[in-house]
Structure formats: C-alpha cells, structure tokens
Design brief:
single chain, about 140 residues, mainly alpha
C-alpha cells in the first residue's frame, strides 16, 4: 500500500471513527490495522481528532543544529583561501596540519575546541558548508 493510499484511507475512515461507539471503533481499528500494517496504538493516535498526519510535509522539519559554528568556519575559510580553494577531500587531509602551522606563526589563533573540531570535520561537511563561499568566489 502506497503512502498516498494510506493518506486517503485515513481521510475516509477518520470521520467514521470519530462518530463510532466503542465496538464500532474496535472494528474500524481492526480493519485499518490489517489493511495498512500499522500498529494498533499508532492507528489510535492518528485517528484522533487533533492529530495531523502529514504535519512534517505541511510545516517542514526542524533543521539540525550546526555542529561547526562560525569560529570554526572562519578558520576553515581562511585556510581554504590560502590553499587556493581545494575541494573538501583535499582540504580535509591538510586542514589540521595547515592550521597548526599557521597557529605556530601567529597567523591564526584557534582554541583547543576549534582544533578538536578541525580534526573531526568531514570532507562532505566541508563541501556543504563552503558552498556559499564558492558561489561568492565564482562571481
């Protein structure tokens, strides 16, 4: 059963479920659970009057919190520019060593927390977070 079919089934059964008595609700739940494969408790929850089944599509999902804040990104952008804009894979391999060299020559001041985050950042994250900078650079 497709997602759209399940949504249509919910829309048609929900008004009947809300008006039915206890025995009627039990029969509706049995039928709905056997048709959709949903758990009984979940089915009870989605057939309630105040439940909105496609809330995530209507309002969107909460964005994830950024792990690498602006202080980390400023250091990364500076190193990225000094190395003449490499891709994330190439930047990841030399990021920490370049940061330590710049820190040793007092060109870059980074804390221990930023240093730890420079060790853990991935190439995909670098590419994703440097995307806006690439657009600015390409103009």
């Amino acid at each position: 059963m497709t997602h759209m079919t399940k949504q249509e089934l919910i829309k048609t059964i929900k008004p009947r479920y809300l008006k039915a008595d206890k025995k009627g609700k039990s029969k509706i739940l049995d039928e709905f659970c056997s048709n959709t494969g949903f758990n009984r408790k979940y089915t009870i929850a989605i057939l309630q009057a105040n439940y909105e089944y496609n809330k995530a599509t209507k309002y969107g999902r909460k964005p994830r919190k950024k792990v690498y804040k602006s202080d980390v990104m400023l250091s990364i952008i500076k190193i990225w520019e000094l190395l003449e804009y490499p891709c994330g894979v190439r930047l990841e391999s030399v990021l920490l060593s370049t940061a330590m060299a710049l820190k040793g020559h007092n060109e870059l001041s980074i804390s221990a927390k930023v240093e730890q985050q420079l060790k853990t950042i991935s190439a995909k994250t670098l590419d994703r977070r440097l995307g806006k900078e690439r657009e600015i650079w390409n103009q």
